[in-house]
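B., you asked whether I could sanity-check this one before it goes into the benchmark set. Here's the sequence:
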Amino acid sequence: MRKSQAILLIILLAIVGLGGWAFQESQSASYYQVLKAPKEVVVKFQKLAQASCECTRSTDDKNVCWSEFNAANGVVKSEFATACGLGSVSGVCFDTVDGEACVTTGFGVNGVCSAKESLAVQAAHSAAYHKVMAESGFPDAPDWNGMSEQEEGRRNDLRPHAHAAADKAVEAVVAKLRRGEEVEPSGEGVGCAG
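And here's what the prediction gave me:
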């Protein structure tokens, strides 16, 4: 009797072990399929990320706007963010059959959803800042070595005004975007998005 019980126990353990192995393999297969998406899927994820951002720009309900992207993007390998001021970008990366691919999910200014829009914001900011400084006698590339203490003090006093003008220029670009208007960069960007 003991011999038949031992054989039965061995058979049961083998069945359970085999079932567990099969379950693990099926989980690995679905993980692999999601993670190893081809580049065409990455392009779709990027479009979905931009649409999610544009939705947030018009409704400010991030949970609703990003729910489809979050459900669709599958397994994220890593996240990234740059520190480039207005030109910063953030996103997620995952492996594909073609190598690692990343999708941009955000830019340095709320309401900005594409590199083109980010460049427009950066250009508007830069132009407004430099306009205030230039109109006050401080062109873009002055010779700082020959500046007197008085000139340096005046320049430093102007900076908050130049930054305020630049911030208003950014707000104007974002307001256009919220109204659904197209924006074009009118100069060069200075951040990572360009």
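One thing to flag: DSSP finds five helices and three strands in the chain. Otherwise nothing jumped out at me.
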